[in-house]
Amino acid sequence: MKYLSDQMLIEVYHRAVDLQLDAAFIELLREELQHRNIRITQFSA
Q: Is the pLDDT of residue 42 over 70?
């Protein structure tokens, strides 16, 4: 994860949610977002 820019991490997170990927993977992304102190607004598209 350390090789992803903040913007790319956000994009990957949103894409994973949109595609309803594995919950464990989405949680891993959430944890990395929290670690980087990045807050995102969750929404349904």
A: no
Q: Report CA-CA distances (Å) from 31 to 2, 5, 13, 24, 43.
A: 13, 15, 11, 10, 18
Q: In whole angstroms, give the CA distance from residue 25 to residue 12.
A: 11
Question: Is the Cβ–Cβ distance between 40 and 33 less than 8 Å?
Answer: yes
Set out the domains of the chain in order of their start, with CATH numbers: 6-35 (1.10.287)
Q: How many residues in total does the chain contain?
A: 45
> End-to-end alpha-carbon separation of the chain, Å?
25
How far is it, in rounded angstroms, from Cα 23 to Cα 3? 22
The predicted structure's pLDDT at residue 40: 85
